[in-house]
Write a structure and sequence with these properties.
Structural class: alpha+beta
Mean pLDDT: 78
Strand order of the largest sheet: 2-1-5-3-4-15
Oligomer: single chain
Distance between the termini: 42 Å
Order of helices and strands: HHEEHEEHHEHHHHHHEEEEEEEHHEEHE
Helix content: 25-40%
Number of strands: 15
Largest sheet: 6 strands, mixed
Length: about 450
C-alpha cells in the first residue's frame, strides 16, 4: 500500500508533467504539421551524441533524423540512462557552446538548431559565429523548482542532479564561501576514496579542486587541510552513495540561485570623485529561476542583488545609436526612517537582454503552479542578506506596490535624461539610457552565455 509521502510525490510529478505539457497554439500547430509530413518522404536517420555533466556521453540513433523533436530526444536519452518515465520531465535537451546555451522546448528540433548555430551566435553573442562547436547536453529543465527535487528518492535522478550541481560549484557558477566549498569537496572525496583518502587524492579527484573564485584569496595548503578535516567529520561512509548525493544537494537547495539559468553581461561602475582614470565595467551573471532574479559579480562570485518577483520591476531595451541592449532591474532602496521612499536601478548591458526579459516573464506566468514551494522559499529568504550593501524591503511608492507584475508602471515611462542617465568617459563608447520606445518582446529562445575560460567544458 502506498504511503502518504508516496502519494504526495506522485502528485508533485503530475504537476510537473502538466507544466511541461503546457504549449502555445503555435507550438501545437508546429508539432501537428511535423506529424502530418508526407509519409512517402524518405527520412534519413541520424545519430545524436548527448553529453552528461559527469563527462560521459551516449550515442543514440534517431529514426526521424533532422525532424526529431526535443521531447522525443529527451525521452530517448532518459530511457537510455535509466531515468524512470515519471521523472523525465525534470530534464531537457540543451545545446551548448562556449558562449551560448539554449534549452530545447518539446517542439524544437535539435538537429535543425545545430545547423543554425552560427546564426544564433551572431544574433545573441559577440563571439565568432563559426568559432564554436555546439554540443547537446542532457540536464535539468530550467523551469523546475528545487522543492520538487527535495522529494525525489530515485538514485539515478539524484545522481544526475548531483552531477549538475557539482559542475556549477567547481566552475564557480554557484557562489559559495571557502568553508562550504571545502565541505562539498569533502563529500566528493568521501565518495571517491572513503577513509583511505589522502592529500594527494584531492588533486586527482576533479570535484575536490578549489573553485576558481577562491584561489586568489586562499592557499592550496589551507584548502587541502580543510577538505581532509571535513571529510573525517562525515558520518556517512563511502558506500552510502545516494545519501551522500542528497547531503550534497541539500546545500544547493538552500541557495536562492540554485537551478538558475545564467546570462552574462556587464554593469557600469559608479564614478568616483577626483578619479579621472576610466573604470572598467563589472562583469556579472544574471541568474533567473522561479525564486527570483539574482545578480552575481562574476570575478568575485559574490551576490550583488537577490530579489523575488514581488520586490522588483524589470524591462529590456536596445540603444538605437550604439546597438547595445540592456536589462533593467528596479527595486525599492533602503531608506532611513522619515525619508521619502525612492527607487534603485541596476542596468545590465548584455546582448541577451530580450532573452532575460522573456524568461523572467515566463517564470512569472508559472508562479501560480509552484506556490507551495515558493512560500517555503520566502520563509528561508526572509533571513537572507544582500551583499555589497544592496537591500530591498518591497516597500510601496505612492500607495502602490512596485513589483515585476507592475513592470510598465515604473520603468517604461521613464525618459532618457533623468535618473537612468549613465555617465561615460568621452574615450568610451557612449551608451544612451533606456527610453520609452517600443521594443520586441517576442518569444525569444531561452539562453545563457558562459565564460570563455570554461569553454573547454561548455556549459
Amino acid at each position: 500500500m502506498a504511503s502518504a509521502a508516496d502519494e504526495d510525490e506522485v502528485a508533485d510529478l503530475q504537476q510537473l508533467q502538466l507544466h511541461q505539457e503546457d504549449e502555445t497554439d503555435q507550438d501545437k500547430f508546429s508539432r501537428r504539421k511535423t506529424s502530418m509530413a508526407d509519409p512517402s518522404m524518405k527520412i534519413r536517420p541520424l545519430e545524436a551524441v548527448v553529453t552528461f555533466l559527469d563527462g560521459t556521453e551516449t550515442i543514440l540513433s534517431c529514426p526521424q533524423g533532422k525532424y526529431t523533436t526535443g521531447e522525443e530526444l529527451r525521452e530517448m536519452v532518459a530511457r537510455d540512462r535509466g531515468v524512470p518515465a515519471e521523472y523525465s520531465a525534470l530534464f531537457a535537451i540543451w545545446i551548448v557552446s562556449g558562449s551560448l546555451q539554449l534549452q530545447m522546448k518539446a517542439h524544437h528540433m535539435p538537429f535543425k538548431v545545430l545547423k543554425k548555430w552560427p546564426e544564433l551566435l551572431q544574433s545573441y553573442t559577440h563571439s565568432d559565429p563559426f568559432g564554436e562547436v555546439p554540443v547537446m547536453y542532457f540536464k535539468r529543465d530550467a523551469i523546475v523548482h528545487q522543492g520538487i527535487e527535495r522529494k525525489i528518492k530515485d538514485p539515478i535522478v539524484l545522481r544526475l542532479l548531483f552531477d549538475e550541481m557539482s559542475f556549477n560549484v567547481l566552475y564557480s557558477l554557484y557562489p559559495c564561501e571557502f568553508d562550504e566549498a571545502a565541505y562539498l569537496a569533502a563529500v566528493h572525496l568521501q565518495l571517491a576514496r572513503g577513509n583511505a583518502a589522502t592529500k594527494n587524492d584531492i588533486a586527482e579527484v576533479e570535484n575536490c579542486l578549489m573553485p576558481e573564485h577562491l584561489r586568489k584569496s586562499h592557499k592550496p595548503k589551507a584548502w587541502i587541510k580543510k577538505v581532509l578535516e571535513l571529510r573525517k567529520e562525515l558520518s556517512l561512509g563511502q558506500d552510502d552513495v545516494t545519501a551522500l548525493h542528497v547531503l550534497y544537494l541539500q546545500h544547493g537547495w538552500s541557495w536562492p540561485y540554485y537551478g538558475c539559468t545564467f546570462f552574462f553581461g556587464d554593469i557600469e561602475q559608479r564614478e568616483v570623485k577626483h578619479v579621472f582614470q576610466e573604470r572598467p565595467d563589472e562583469i556579472v551573471r544574471v541568474g533567473v529561476n522561479l525564486d527570483g532574479v539574482h545578480v552575481i559579480n562574476d570575478k568575485k562570485n559574490k551576490v550583488k542583488l537577490s530579489l523575488d518577483y514581488s520586490k522588483l520591476s524589470y524591462n529590456s531595451y536596445e540603444d538605437s545609436e550604439s546597438g547595445e541592449s540592456c536589462f533593467l532591474i528596479e527595486y525599492d532602496a533602503e531608506v532611513d526612517e522619515g525619508e521619502e521612499p525612492r527607487k534603485e536601478q541596476l542596468v545590465v548591458w548584455t546582448q541577451q537582454a530580450t532573452m532575460i526579459d522573456t524568461l523572467v516573464t515566463r517564470f512569472i506566468e508559472e508562479l501560480g503552479s509552484w506556490q507551495e514551494f515558493l512560500q517555503q522559499r520566502r520563509k528561508e529568504r526572509g533571513m537572507s542578506l544582500h551583499p555589497d550593501g544592496v537591500k530591498a524591503k518591497g516597500r510601496t511608492e505612492h500607495g502602490k506596490k512596485s513589483s515585476a507584475l507592475d513592470r510598465f508602471n515604473t520603468i517604461v515611462k521613464r525618459s532618457g535624461g533623468g535618473m537612468f542617465t549613465l555617465g561615460r568617459m568621452r574615450t568610451r563608447k557612449q551608451r544612451n539610457a533606456p527610453t520609452a520606445k517600443d521594443f520586441d518582446q517576442s518569444d525569444a529562445p531561452q539562453a545563457v552565455t558562459t565564460r570563455q575560460d570554461v569553454a573547454e567544458h561548455p556549459l
